[in-house]
Amino acid sequence: MPGQRGASEYGTGTVHGGRIDSLGLDENGSPVIVEYKRGVDAGVINQGLFYLAWLMDHRAEFEQLVRDRLGVTAASQVLWSGPRLICIAGDFTRYDVHAVREHRRSIDLVRYRLFGSDLLSLETVASVSGSMQVARRPRRQVVARAAAGAGGASMVELANAVDEVLLGLGDGVNRVERKMYRAYQRLRNFACLCPPQRSKLLVYLKVDPKDVDLVPGFTRDVSGLGHHGTGDLEVQLRTAKDVERAQDLFRASYAAA
C-alpha cells in the first residue's frame, strides 16, 4: 500500500501456523496488516483480526523486524495505540460492513476493480477508526493547553476549527496523534497539523504544489525540505479566513487519499 513499508507473506511461526499477506508500518508508524482476497470471502475480516491479535501479543518480534528492516529509530517510534487492519477484496457484503463497526479496532474494507490488464482502482467501502476515536476529546485538551502557552486563545480556536473541518470532510477520517504532529488519514494521510506556533498553524497536504498557484505567506512548496508530518504542500493559517481559503485544498487532498 502507498506510504507503507514492510514484509510480504510473513509467517507467524509453527505454533500459530499463519501467514500474513502483508505486514508493515503506515506513514505515522502504526503497525498495519493487509489481507487480500480475489472475490467475496466472508472469512477475510476474521482472519485479519486473528492476525491482528497475534501482532499485539508479539510486539517485541515486530519491533525487531522493524529494527532489522528500517533501523533503530523507526523501531523506537512504533505507534502501538493505533494498529490497523486493511482488507482488500473483490467485494464485501452488508454483513461485513456491519461487522467491522462492531469491533474496537481500526479496520478498512477496500474493494478493488480491474480495468483491462494494467489498471486497478481501490475504493474504500468502510473505515472504522477504532481506539483512535476514544482519544479525541482528551487529546484536543492537551493540544489546546500547548497552544495557549505558545500563542494564546486565538490559536487554540483556530486549531479546533481546522480539526473540525478536516474531520468533517467525509466518512472514515481517522485522526492519529503523534508527538510532533496530528495526522488525518483515510487509507493514507491527507493532512498533517503541526502544534500551533505563536502566530500561525502549519498544515501539510498531499497536494502536488505544481498544481497550485502558490501564494507567499499562505502556501509553499516543501518537496525536498525536511518537516514534520507528510505532504509536499505547506499551508500557513493565521486567521479563520485562511481556513476558509484553504478548504478547497483540504478537499483536494482528501480526495487524492
End-to-end Cα distance: 12 Å
Average pLDDT metric: 83
Low-confidence stretches: 132-151
**Biggest sheet: strand arrangement:** 1-2-3-4-5-6
How many β-strands, per DSSP?
12
Summarize the structure.
With 257 residues, the protein is α+β, with helices and mostly antiparallel strands. Helices cover 37% and strands 28% of the residues.
Which structural traits does this protein have?
6-stranded mixed beta sheet, 12 strands
Describe the structure.
The structure is a single chain. By secondary structure, this protein is α+β, with helices and mostly antiparallel strands. It contains nine helices and twelve strands. The chain has helices spanning 13-16, 44-57, 59-70, 72-76, 94-101, 131-134, 136-151, 153-167, 240-256; strands at residues 5-11, 19-25, 31-36, 84-89, 106-115, 119-129, 174-177, 182-185, 189-193, 201-205, 219-221, 233-237. The strands form two sheets. Strands 1-2-3-4-5-6 form a six-stranded mixed beta sheet. A six-stranded antiparallel beta sheet has the order 7-8-9-10-12-11, covered by helices on one side. Helix 7 (136-151) packs antiparallel against helix 8. The radius of gyration is 19 Å and the shape is globular. Residues 132-151 have low confidence and may be disordered.
Question: What secondary-structure arrangement, pairings included, does this model have?
Answer:
Layout: E1 5-11, H1 13-16, E2 19-25, E3 31-36, H2 44-57, H3 59-70, H4 72-76, E4 84-89, H5 94-101, E5 106-115, E6 119-129, H6 131-134, H7 136-151, H8 153-167, E7 174-177, E8 182-185, E9 189-193, E10 201-205, E11 219-221, E12 233-237, H9 240-256
